[in-house]
Input
Amino acid sequence: MTGTSEPILRLKNVRKAFGNLAAVDDINLSIGEGEFFTIVGPSGSGKTTLIRMLAGMERPTSGDILLRDKRINDTPANERPTCMVFQSLALFPHRTVGQNIEFALKIRNVDPATRAKRARELMQQLHLPADYYSKNVTLCSGGERQRVALARALAFDPQILFFDEPLSAIDYKLRKTLEKELKDIHRETGKTFVYITHSLEEAMVMSDRIGVMRRGKLIQVGSPNEIYSTPRSRFVSEFMGDVNVIPVESNGAGSVRSQTLGASFKVPPAAIESKAQCLVVRPEFLRFLNSPSDAQNSLKGVLYNEYALGSRIQYQVRVGEKVFLVEKLRQQPFKGKLDDEVLIGWDPENSILVADE
Amino acid sequence: MSENNNSIRHILIGVWTAAVLLFVFIPSATIFLASMTSSRYFTFPISSFGFDWWSKVFNSLEVRALALTSLSIAATVTVIAVVLGFFGALAFARYDWKGRKLYQKFILLPIFFPQSVLGLALLLWFNALGLTLSWKTAVLAHLVWIAPVVTLVMAIQVYSFDPSLEEAATDLGASRWQTFREVTLPVLMPGIFSGSLFAFLLSWGNFPLSLYTTGADNTLPKYLYAKMVAGYTPGVPVLGTISTAAAAVLLFGGYAAMLFLTRKRNAAS
Output
């Protein structure tokens, strides 16, 4: 599903500067036909500027944007066969649900009967009640408005659908539902989706591939699994939920040393790099040990606190000044109490060495 | 105890509200009463009630001419002020451009000029340009003061306008003109509506600017003032009452029409 299809959208050295500041800096990217591609980054990383260039609302300072090998840098938004779902949704407040969905068709002078038919099909596909057709859009709930916005964009029948963080203002439970619905719609329509969000968790659920942006640059592109299990930098590893990060220096021979902890750890030999590095271990790969020999790497600490995360329980263990997070499944037995001395450990193959940046 | 306090508070709020309403509406009520006399002069209490002066006013050709002049000025001012104010408000609140801050301050200056001084200044200016004074020069004078007010009233609506609505329309394939017609204009309609009400009412009731700039033409407020100074008849309060009532009808009628349209839109497409 990834990278094998023909590219529909290609970016070559795309750059956008506001004054001296490069909001988007030298981006090269190829997005495949039918792919669900998500760009993730913190606020200010340039992801909104990037998607606005792709949709035609901003013009790149330099570089090329190619849609099916045709350069579209200077094509205005209303002449591009693409469509965007806005962060604010930008539903027309003076129009009904039906009129909102039909907007693109009305602009194309499609006759009213055909327009209404298409709008009703889309409403059904997106689980909107049929009697909402003549309801004013401002009277709809948050989730319904999301669906209307998506229906309006789908009615346009775009070659690519862009999403500018449309779910960011939705509460957790509904957001989870809508994320799955959106992925279902992606399968049903087979269209190319380009989504931006600041939540890597959201990106994980939906995407075929993820691109992580930081300070205007695309720093890593890969499948959700690649981003999760083999981040290339400390930034990417920390972006995906809780991680334990230990600054280390190379010891040679499959081993690294931490100054602050005064300990050495074994790592997979292939992982050794030369520049400033961090050892990253995810909480679910750390476990409580009975004796130091139960794992190849171990540390002694104090159980400071515990957090129930539903099916898992996370523990905070302090090793000197350094805080470690350890996770276990709820049903796994564990007798430790707060302030107990505990042994924690992990296996070298469950740790990653990343650049300290 | 606290319930008792509460009821006292409610009574006091009621008394205060009634006092304010009384203060605001007694002058209008007094004028209405003054128009009901059948005698030549205004005495209080009124000795004999009658509608003689109402019929005299309604049958007076002079009053009809005056009303027509006032109406022509107010209508012309409304149309021009709304067009100027609409685009002025977009420049004021919607778009970011060099010099916007300065424009925002300068456009509001005429509102703070004392109107009688502004009227005199405009009179001198019209004379210097060699314009013959008439209701048309009054339109210009009114616009100097009213266009900024309308701009400000509409800018309030424009500030609450989400610019991504226009972007969304463009993104869905609409041209600039289609975006304007289908989105910008209808969404800003309430602002246009209140702007035109303001324009009409401010022009209709304006005295200090008209005093200097109408030349041979006469408006209702000017006529009323002249009659007050010399030659009072109960026709003055009659006209005052009619003028106030017309403004109220326009205001509430317009509001009701707006409400009706919104309801209709929400009920069915």
Summary: Chain B has one domain: 60-267. DSSP finds 13 helices and no strands in chain B. The first helix of chain B runs from residue 2 to 34.
